[in-house]
C-alpha cells in the first residue's frame, strides 16, 4: 500500500530518540544537516536517477557517468557549494567516476608532495577542473611493491627535463582510475635516474592528453583496461593503461617537497622523511575506513528492514508468521554487523583526528607520529574493508532469495565495494606493515623506548603477561575495563609470541616470511583492540539524547563480545580467559541481542540513508517491499515484449521439430 509505513510498529518500539542518534552517527549537528540536505538534493534530481544503471552496456554506462559527473560539477557551481558540500554531493551521486580520483588523489598528491610554487601553479587549474588528473602508481608488474616500479624518469642535463619511459611491458601503468579515457594529467610514480644512478620512486606531474582535442600527446599510449567484476559496479570507472615512449616533461614537474633535483642535476633530500612520497595513500586509507562504515551501514539497513518485513513459519491458528528478524540465528548474524557499522564509524572519526594531527605536526617539522599514522591507517583500512565486504555478502544471504535480485541493491553494493580490500594496498600486505610496526615496538622495549599511542599497552608487558580475567558472571563482560584488559592481553601475548619466535631466526627477514600467517593474526588482534578501545572512548564522552548512550553501550558490548566469541581460540590459547568465561561472554551476547531487537529498525533509521542512496526495494524506508518488487520485475527489458528476441530464430524450430517427430 502506497503511503503506508509498514515498519511503523517497529519504529514505535524504539527505546531511544532516533533524531539524536542521527546526529551521533553523522558526527555533529552540522554534519547531519549538511548530509541530510545534500542527500535529498541529489535524490530529487532526475539526472542522478540510478535505478537503470545495472541494465546499461559499458559504453552507455560510461556516458551516463560522464553526464552525472558533469551535472554534479554544474550543480556544485550553481549552488556555490563549499568543499565539504561538494564532496557529499559526489558521494550521494553514488557512481564511481573519474572525479573521485581527481579530487581524492590527484589534488591531495599535489598538496602533500608539491612545493608551494608547484601548488600555486597546478592547484588553481585542478580546482577549476581546467585540468583533470589521476594517480598513476600501479603497473602491470607491480602494485604492492612500490619500490619495484619500473617506469623511469631520467634527468636530461642539456634540456633541463625528465624523460619518462616505460622500458618493459610490465612497466605499463595499469589500474589508475580516470586514466583510461578522461584524465588530461596524472601524478606518475617513476624511478628517478640521474647520471645512471637510481634514486628510487618519486612523483611527477605529466600531461597525457591535449587540452584542445583530448588526443594523447606524442609518445603516449593510453586506454581502458577492460570490464571488471559485476555489471555496473566499478565499470563506470575508466581504469586505465598508460605507456610512455621517451616523453619529456620540464624539471619543475617533479613533485619536490620531499626531495629536489637542481638545474645542475644534483639530488637534494630535504629534512622531510622519504615516506611522505606515500602520503596520499595514508590520506585515502583514512577516508576508506570511514567509507567502510557507510558501505556496511547500507547493507545492514537493507537487511534489517527486510528482516522485519519478511515472515516465514510459525503461524498458529491463522496468525501472522514469524518475522525473520525474530529468529535468534538471524540476530546473531545481523546484529554484530550493525554494531560493526557503528564501531567503524567511531574508529573512522578517531582516525580522521589522528590524520589531521599528524598533518599539523608535519607542517611544524615534527615527524614523530608518522609511523603510527601509517600503521593505524593501514591496519584499520585492512580490518574494516574486509569486514564490510564480507558483511555485505552476509546481508545478501540474510535477505534470502530476494537478496540476489539486482533490485535488492546488494549485488551492486557488493560488486562495487569488494575492490576496497585490494586498492590502496592489499589487505594482507597492509596487515604485514602493522606487524612490522608491532615487532619494532617490542624490539625497542628493552632499550627503554616507551611505546606510545596505540602500542602503549605493550609497555605494560609484564602486567599483561600475568593477566587472568576475573569475570565470574555474564554481566561482568559489560564492564569496559574488563573487555579492554582482555583484548590488550590477547593482542600483547600474540605479538610477544611472534617476537619470541622471530628471535629464533638468524635472519629476521627469513623469520618474518616464515611466521607471516601468525603475524597477520597478531596484527588483526591489535587492530581489533584499537576499534574496541575507540568505541569505549567514544562512550566516555557526553552523548546527549534520550536513551542514545544506552543503545551505543549495547552495540559496543556486542561488537567486543562477538569478536571474543569469534576469536575464542586466541583468547583461550593465550590463557587470557577460561572456557567458562568464554561461555559467559556468549551468554551475555545472547541477552544483548534481545536488547537490540526492539531498537533495530530505529538504529538503522539513524543512518539517515535516503531511498535513492540505498537503491534497494528490500530496504525501502516504508517497508512496502512486495508490491514494489512485483512492479519492478515488469520493468526489466526482457519483459518489454511477450515473446523474446531470438525465440523465433532458435527455440521455435526446436519445438516444431519435436512436434514433427511426435507426428511421425
Ligand atoms: C577531498 C575529496 C575526497 C574525495 C574522496 C576520495 C575517495 C576516497 C575513496 C576511495 C575510493 C576509491 C579509490 C580507489 C583508488 C585506488 C587507488 C590506488 O589503489 S593507488 C595505489 C595504492 N597502492 C598501494 O597501496 C601499494 C601498497 N604498497 C605500499 O604502500 C608500500 O609500498 C608498502 C608499505 C607495502 C611497502 O613497504 P616496504 O617496507 O616494502 O617499503 P619501503 O621501503 O617503501 O618502506 C620502508 C619504511 O617506510 C614505512 N612506510 C611504508 N609506507 C608508508 C606510508 N604510507 N607512510 C609512512 N611510512 C610508510 C614502512 O613502515 C617502513 O618503515 P620502517 O620504520 O623503516 O620499518
Ligand atoms: C578497482 C581498483 C582501482 C584501483 N585504482 C588505482 C589507482 O587509481 N591508481 C593506482 O596506482 N592503482 C590503482 N589500483 C591498483 C591497486 O592499488 C593494486 O591493485 C593494489 O595495491 C594491490 O597490488 P597488486 O595488484 O600488485 O596485488 P599483488 O601484490 O600482486 O597481490 C596478489 C596477492 O599476493 C599477495 N601478496 C603480495 N605481496 C605479498 C607479501 N609481501 N606477503 C604476502 N602476500 C603478498 C597479496 O596478499 C595477494 O593475495 C586499483 C586497483 C583496483 C582493483
Automatic annotation (TrEMBL):
Which domain of life does the UniProt lineage start with?
Eukaryota
Ranges annotated as spanning the membrane: none
Stored Pfam families: ACOX, ACOX_C_alpha1, Acyl-CoA_ox_N
Name the active site residues: 424 (proton acceptor)
Q: Which GO terms describe its cellular component?
A: peroxisome
A GO biological process this protein is involved in? lipid homeostasis
Q: Tell me the ranges covered by the Acyl-CoA oxidase C-alpha1 domain, including all copies.
A: 278-439
Query: Localized where?
Result: Peroxisome
Q: Which UniProt keywords apply?
A: FAD, Fatty acid metabolism, Flavoprotein, Lipid metabolism, Oxidoreductase, Peroxisome
Location of the Acyl-CoA oxidase C-terminal domain: 480-656
- Tell me the InterPro entries matching this sequence: ACOX_C_alpha1, Acyl-CoA_ox_N, Acyl-CoA_Oxase/DH_mid-dom_sf, Acyl-CoA_oxidase, Acyl-CoA_oxidase_C, AcylCo_DH-like_C, AcylCoA_DH/ox_N_sf, AcylCoA_DH/oxidase_NM_dom_sf
Q: Give the required cofactors.
A: FAD
**Positions annotated to bind FAD:** 138, 177
Ranges for domain Acyl-coenzyme A oxidase N-terminal come to 17-132
Q: From the UniProt record, which GO molecular function terms apply?
A: acyl-CoA oxidase activity; FAD binding; fatty acid binding
Family classification: Belongs to the acyl-CoA oxidase family.
Q: What is this protein called?
A: Acyl-coenzyme A oxidase
Question: Can you name the source organism?
Answer: Lupinus luteus (European yellow lupine)
Amino acid at each position: 500500500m502506497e503511503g503506508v509505513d509498514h515498519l511503523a510498529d517497529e519504529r514505535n518500539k524504539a527505546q531511544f530518540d532516533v533524531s539524536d542518534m542521527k546526529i551521533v552517527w553523522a558526527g555533529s549537528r552540522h554534519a547531519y544537516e549538511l548530509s541530510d540536505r545534500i542527500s535529498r538534493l541529489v535524490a530529487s534530481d532526475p539526472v542522478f536517477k540510478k535505478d537503470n544503471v545495472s541494465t546499461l552496456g559499458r559504453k552507455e554506462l560510461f556516458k551516463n557517468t560522464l553526464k552525472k559527473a558533469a551535472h554534479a560539477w554544474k550543480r556544485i557551481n550553481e549552488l556555490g557549494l563549499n568543499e565539504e558540500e561538494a564532496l557529499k554531493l559526489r558521494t550521494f551521486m553514488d557512481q564511481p567516476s573519474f572525479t573521485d580520483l581527481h579530487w581524492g588523489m590527484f589534488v591531495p598528491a599535489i598538496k602533500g608532495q608539491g612545493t608551494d610554487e608547484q601548488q600555486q601553479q597546478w592547484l588553481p587549474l585542478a580546482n577549476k577542473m581546467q585540468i583533470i588528473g589521476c594517480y598513476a602508481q600501479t603497473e602491470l608488474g607491480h602494485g604492492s611493491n612500490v619500490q619495484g616500479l619500473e617506469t623511469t624518469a631520467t634527468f636530461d642535463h642539456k634540456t633541463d627535463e625528465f624523460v619518462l619511459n616505460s622500458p618493459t611491458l610490465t612497466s605499463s601503468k595499469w589500474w589508475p582510475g580516470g586514466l583510461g579515457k578522461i584524465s588530461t594529467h596524472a601524478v606518475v610514480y617513476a624511478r628517478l635516474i640521474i647520471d645512471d644512478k637510481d634514486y628510487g620512486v618519486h612523483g611527477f606531474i605529466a600531461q597525457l592528453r591535449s587540452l584542445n582535442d583530448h588526443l594523447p600527446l606524442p609518445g603516449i599510449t593510453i586506454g581502458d583496461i577492460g570490464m571488471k567484476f559485476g555489471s555496473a559496479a566499478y565499470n563506470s570507472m575508466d581504469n586505465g593503461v598508460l605507456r610512455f615512449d621517451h616523453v619529456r616533461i620540464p624539471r619543475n614537474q617533479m613533485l619536490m617537497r620531499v626531495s629536489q633535483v637542481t638545474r645542475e642535476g644534483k639530488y637534494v633530500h630535504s629534512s622531510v622523511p622519504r615516506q611522505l612520497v606515500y602520503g596520499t595513500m595514508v590520506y585515502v586509507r583514512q577516508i576508506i575506513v570511514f567509507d567502510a562504515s557507510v558501505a556496511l551501514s547500507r547493507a545492514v539497513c537493507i537487511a534489517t528492514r527486510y528482516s522485519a518485513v519478511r515472515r516465514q513459519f510459525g503461524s498458529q491458528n491463522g496468525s501472522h508468521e514469524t518475522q525473520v528478524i525474530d529468529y535468534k540465528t538471524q540476530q546473531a548474524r545481523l546484529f554484530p554487523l550493525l554494531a560493526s557499522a557503528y564501531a567503524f564509524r567511531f574508529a573512522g572519526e578517531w582516525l580522521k583526528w589522528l590524520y589531521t594531527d599528524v598533518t599539523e605536526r608535519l607542517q611544524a617539522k615534527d615527524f614523530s607520529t608518522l609511523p603510527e599514522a601509517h600503521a593505524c591507517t593501514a591496519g584499520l583500512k585492512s580490518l574494516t574493508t574486509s569486514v564490510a565486504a564480507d558483511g555485505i555478502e552476509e546481508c545478501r544471504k540474510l535477505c534470502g532469495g530476494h537478496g540476489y535480485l539486482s533490485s535488492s541493491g546488494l549485488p551492486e553494493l557488493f560488486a562495487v565495494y569488494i575492490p576496497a580490500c585490494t586498492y590502496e594496498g592489499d589487505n594482507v600486505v597492509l596487515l604485514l606493515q602493522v606487524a612490522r610496526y608491532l615487532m619494532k615496538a617490542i624490539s625497542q622495549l628493552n632499550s627503554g623506548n616507551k611505546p606510545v599511542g596505540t602500542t602503549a599497552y605493550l609497555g605494560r608487558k609484564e602486567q599483561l603477561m600475568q593477566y587472568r580475567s576475573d569475570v565470574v558472571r555474564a554481566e561482568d563482560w559489560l564492564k569496559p575495563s574488563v573487555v579492554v584488559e582482555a583484548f590488550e592481553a590477547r593482542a600483547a601475548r600474540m605479538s610477544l609470541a611472534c617476537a619470541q619466535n622471530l628471535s629464533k631466526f638468524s635472519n629476521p627477514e627469513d623469520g618474518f616470511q616464515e611466521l607471516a600467517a601468525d603475524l597477520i593474526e597478531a596484527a588483526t588482534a591489535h587492530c581489533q583492540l584499537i576499534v574496541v578501545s575507540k568505541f569505549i572512548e567514544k562512550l566516555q564522552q557526553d552523548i546527549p539524547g534520550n536513551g542514545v548512550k544506552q543503545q551505543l553501550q549495547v552495540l559496543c558490548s556486542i561488537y567486543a563480545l562477538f569478536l571474543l566469541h569469534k576469536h575464542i581460540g586466541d583468547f583461550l590459547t593465550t590463557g587470557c580467559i577460561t572456557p567458562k568465561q568464554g561461555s559467559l561472554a556468549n551468554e551475555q551476547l545472547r541477552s544483548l541481542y534481545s536488547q537490540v531487537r526492539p531498537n533495530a529498525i530505529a538504529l538503522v533509521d539513524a543512518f539517515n540513508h535516503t531511498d535513492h542512496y540505498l537503491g534497494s526495494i528490500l530496504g525501502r524506508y516504508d517497508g512496502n517491499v512486495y508490491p514494489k518488487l512485483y512492479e519492478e520485475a515488469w520493468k526489466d527489458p526482457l519483459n518489454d515484449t511477450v515473446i523474446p528476441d531470438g525465440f523465433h530464430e532458435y527455440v521455435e524450430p526446436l519445438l516444431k521439430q519435436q512436434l514433427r517427430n511426435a507426428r511421425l
